[in-house]
UniProtKB/TrEMBL annotation:
Keywords: Oxidoreductase. Belongs to the short-chain dehydrogenases/reductases (SDR) family. GO terms for biological process: monocarboxylic acid metabolic process. This is 3-hydroxybutyrate dehydrogenase. Its EC number is 1.1.1.30. It comes from Allorhizobium terrae.
Length: 256
């Protein structure tokens, strides 16, 4: 049977990789995120060519009413949600005393609160079916901190707490809730923070890549989008039914 999958922030990077991996299984997909309309339509068509129905919803993850509408759309179009992947996220790098208040609010909303809003809307459907998978894309920064990333680290630690709480609430309803904690994946999110990190630390961009980014990762290699996607597929599988309320790190040894 085709599974119905919602992936937030799936027009780019990790979310797109996860959408591609589920499409490969022929899943029906709701994709979401920003970008030029023609590029999004190209992605939608590419995913749909794998056999499932693919719809795009433009919900802004800072807007609870739009998030609720997105989940209701998936339920009405597909008849239910089997897998919910909370992936949308942004970054901003600055010292706390210079951190723009609106950036703080935006990061807390997109990287943390949006998962509360999607879950709130999707859980009654999953409970009703006595099955479901919720996968939250946290980060190594859900487990450890780095300077100049106060909002991101706070939001990612918060999503770890939400993951555990939801797992306990849903444990007897056939629904698992887990987080994936990637280290550095070379996506637009990471590429964009290199100049700001360079500025905040007084380094060149090359030094940031070598001495800041890959310094954290014991393997000295970037994690790939495909590796994170494969982990999501595993957490959504039958084999992972007893894995709940926890996280899987894919961080090249960073948090060891
Ligand atoms: P990315 O910038 O490539 O993609 C982010 C996606 O989120 C895009 O589709 C974007 O349009 C969407 N998005 C941003 N703001 C949105 C909003 N307000 N409403 C709806 N969608 C919105 O970034 P990525 O690296 O693929 O990051 C995806 C997730 O993985 C994030 O939660 C990020 O924190 C997490 N993560 C990334 C890394 C990394 O190294 N890249 C490491 C650990 C965790």
């Amino acid at each position: 049977m085709k599974r119905n999958v919602v992936v937030t922030g799936s027009t780019s990077g990790i979310g797109l990789g996860i959408a591609r991996a589920f499409a490969q299984e022929g899943a029906n997909l709701l994709i979401n995120g920003f970008g030029p309309a023609d590029e999004i339509e190209k992605i939608r068509k590419e995913l749909e060519a794998k056999g499932g129905k693919v719809i795009y919803h433009a919900a802004d993850m800072t807007k609870p009413a739009e998030i609720t509408d997105m989940i209701e759309t998936a339920i009405s179009q597909f008849g239910g949600i089997d897998v919910l992947v909370n992936n949308a996220g942004i970054q901003h790098v600055a010292p706390i005393e210079e951190f723009p208040i609106e950036k703080w609010d935006q990061i807390i909303a997109i990287n943390m609160s949006s998962a509360f809003h999607t879950m709130r809307a999707a859980i009654p459907n999953m409970k009703g079916k006595k099955s479901g998978r919720i996968i939250n894309i946290a980060s190594a920064h859900g487990l450890v901190a780095s300077p100049f990333k106060s909002a991101y680290v706070t939001a990612k630690h918060g999503i770890m707490g939400l993951t555990k709480t939801a797992a306990l609430e849903l444990a007897e309803h056939g629904v698992t809730v887990n987080a994936i904690c990637p280290g550095y994946v070379l996506t637009p999110l990471v590429e964009k923070q290199i100049p700001d990190t360079a500025k905040a630390r007084g380094m060149t961009e090359e030094q940031v890549k070598k001495d800041v980014i890959l310094a954290s990762q014991a393997t000295k290699e970037f994690v790939t989008v495909e590796q994170v996607a494969a982990c999501a597929i595993y957490l959504a599988s039958e084999a992972a039914q007893q894995i709940t309320g926890t996280h899987i790190s894919i961080d090249g040894g960073w948090t060891a």
